[in-house]
Write a structure and sequence with these properties.
By secondary structure, the protein is α+β, with helices and mostly antiparallel strands. The chain folds into two domains: 95 residues, no CATH class; 138 residues, Gcn5-related N-acetyltransferase (GNAT) (Aminopeptidase, 3-Layer(aba) Sandwich). It has seven helices and eleven strands. It has an eleven-stranded mixed β-sheet with strand order 1-2-3-4-11-5-10-9-8-7-6, with helices on both faces. A hairpin with a 2-residue loop joins strand 1 and strand 2. The two termini are 28 Å apart.
Length: 245
């Protein structure tokens, strides 16, 4: 199971790219000026040789130099590290499920909406995305720079209604697997099935592109999103969580 987790975590790191990365004996330290937990945390990725407690202290020093809180992203199998962090005063936050969908065995129809696709993050997609997610100017700048660092294949999709974009999502994939992310619907258009429709549109597109698996990450407390992904046929692969002080 750990090998599968490592593979998906690698793919996710290439789909949601941190601005800066530092390696420490099998651990990957990510820095992105505080924007998103995934891009500002320590991932326990590979087998290690050094003392775990000493590495934790090293990570804390690295994040302190960057003026970013030190946080660890743990997955199933990282319970020993979790115990060490608890002893140092860390607490668990935002437990999330990683879910996947076998596209080769799933019939997905393009929804009956005005759907548009882009192979890169154009302004027509970015501007409403920032508005609906409530990004600050700094957040927008960091997000743009993170997108610029993505070198795998990407697809951005949107649904137009009443002359404007009202829902959007994106994917980034390689090696037959693509990550579904940035799913958002305008607050004024929620409750109309657009969340499911935008996901169906993107899934139909990436299947057409030749991907055989889609995967995503969803916070367990987001029951609306969890129910949506369950309805679409996604199944849980493993759990991850953050340890924060």
């Amino acid at each position: 199971m750990k090998d599968k987790i490592t593979t998906i975590e690698e793919l996710a790191s290439n789909a949601h790219v941190a601005l800066n990365v530092q390696f420490c004996d099998g651990w990957v330290l990510k820095f992105s000026e505080g924007h998103t937990g995934r891009a500002n945390s320590v991932n326990i990725m590979y087998p290690s040789q050094l003392d775990a407690l000493e590495k934790i202290k090293h990570c804390e020093e690295c994040y302190e130099k960057q003026n970013i809180p030190c946080r660890f992203k743990l997955t199933d199998g990282d319970e020993a590290i979790n115990e060490l962090l608890v002893e140092r005063g860390y607490v668990e936050v935002n437990p999330s499920d990683v879910m996947s969908l076998d596209l080769s065995g799933t019939d997905i129809e393009m929804p009956n909406f005005d759907v548009v696709f882009y192979d890169k993050p154009v302004e027509e997609w970015l501007v409403p995305y920032f508005a609906y997610e409530g990004f600050s100017e700094k957040g927008q700048d960091v997000f743009r720079r993170m997108l610029d660092k993505v070198v795998i294949d990407t697809t951005f999709t949107a649904i137009r209604m009443d002359g404007k974009i009202v829902a959007m999502a994106s994917s980034a994939g390689e090696r037959g697997m693509t990550m579904i992310q940035n799913v958002v619907v305008s607050p004024d258009y929620r409750g109309r099935g657009l969340g499911k429709a935008i996901c169906q549109a993107l899934l139909a597109k990436v299947k057409e592109q030749g991907y055989n698996t889609a995967y995503l990450q969803v916070v367990k407390s987001n029951t609306v999103a969890l129910n949506l992904y369950n309805t679409l046929g996604f199944k849980k692969e493993y759990l991850y969580w953050y340890m924060n002080k």
